[in-house]
Amino acid sequence: MGLIDKIESKEAHIGIIGLGYVGLPIVLRFCEEGFTVIGFDVDHEKVKKINRGRSYIKHIPSGKIRSFVNGKPPTLTSTTDMSLLSKVDVAIICVPTPLSAKREPDLSYVENTARDIARNLRPGQLISLESTTYPGTTEEVLLPLFEETGLKVGKDFFLVFSPEREDPGRKDFTTKTTPKVVGGVTKRCLEAGTALYSQVVDRVVTVSSPREAEMTKLLENIYRSVNIALVNELKVLCQRMGIDIWEVIEAAKTKPFGFTPFYPGPGLGGHCIPIDPFYLTWKAREYDFATRFIELAGEINTHMPYYVIQRVMEALNERGKALKGARVLVLGIAYKKDIDDMRESPSFHIIELLQKKGAMVDYNDPYIPKLPKLRGHDLSMDSVELNEDMLSSYDCVLIITDHSAYDYKWIVEHSRLIVDTRNAAAPFSKEVVKA
At residue 93, what are phi and psi to the nearest 5 degrees? Predict the structure, then answer.
């Protein structure tokens, strides 16, 4: 039986490498459609939790995982043993693609995974890279590793790029209802990739090569980065001019055409928008091309935590209080509301800046009880409890993430000073300082 026949009859075994915010949802989507799935990860704790039917991501219920792990027969298992990649018909790569300390692409996770696949590659397998990267990665990095085995792409194995489009916490679109872009190295590769993703998403959008698919994901994220930078810059200007940027945005979005609202904040967060645009900036240098819009947007967005600190200092000064020695409570660590994802969250940088200036900082986040050690950050803090006495004891309450769980009217009533980066508490009091 050929690979496409196996896929369409749901007899193909699916292997997904990387069980984080991207990998785990696609694992469950294949399980929901009746496929047998093996999840691969180097994190032993994640593997143990999956095999026990436990979730480690807030918006993914444990019951869903448990139903597949304990099914009769079970359709989901998880492992750290990469040699089992030889048992799957499809290998989907969902590993991180961070930036190095020099803000250059770090493809070590992708390359290590590709080597694991190459060691276990057999005829008839399909490999799909979903991790966001620069145009050319699939054909310049992955393909040579696989063809070193002597197998021929498009004949013996199939290779595609299909960018992830996960948005943690979003409810109006799901993995199933979000269109999937696919680009194949050859025509047969594209046919296999289209057959695969057609089983789990409502619409597959094909493009002419992996490079177009890779650039598609970067365009999506650069579009957001540039527009967020624009509205962040306008926020700073409007503050100096005595204009309410939030009111301006609400008025502008009443125009039924030609305007899409973007909202200012304390800085960019999440794995995609703060990182992915610089993958293209790095690649563009190979073509002697300067991506000035991307660089400028990055400069503006990177500066926003410093602007927040400046607003906190000004607000305290107006009340006769210095930032040094002040007690500051940060509300919200996650990079956006109602999720537990803190990757690249500006909250970490803001807390570190406050501490460097001598403030005594606590935080509260209903979804993040303890700050884990992340790349570049080691804060070792626990979320404090919110109550009237606690709130009133702080010189400043700084809202970074506007979780729906917060009662902003109550917070306003019991806080001495609020600096609000999300316009969450500001509607309840004219005394709230917008930042």
Answer: -95, 115
